[in-house]
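batch_manifest entry 22 of 60
target: GntR family transcriptional regulator
source organism: Microbacterium lacticum
requested by: lab member K.T.
priority: normal
notes from requester: please return tokens only, no post-processing; we will run our own comparison against the previous entry in this batch. if the run fails, retry once and flag.
--- input ---
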Amino acid sequence: MIVIDPRSPVPPYEQLREQLFGAVSAGELAPGSRLPTVRRLADDLGLAPGTVARAYRELETNGVIETRGRNGTFVAATADDATRLAQQAAWAFAERVRALRLTTDEAIAYVTAALRSEPTPS
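--- output ---
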């Protein structure tokens, strides 16, 4: 169940995006599951259609959902577990970067440096 907190400092579209992504990641929304239309979900949540559309666009950009024209919007199928886990890690990193108020360029620089460095034994 999606709940939008109007008192939260997190914008409504981001709350919606995070909750939908969480449901997909947790397997609550399986690949191929049909999502409500933008208008229907906006009405159900008391949001503007543009707010829901923005959340859907961001999820689609990141390969979490896919729009099939008039057929609707669906949870995308991920290629494999490695892809799914990498997507989850990327989303978690992006959320942390936003919370820290880093720029995109700073975040990319940190990721680039981390990927080029030798892994430390654990």
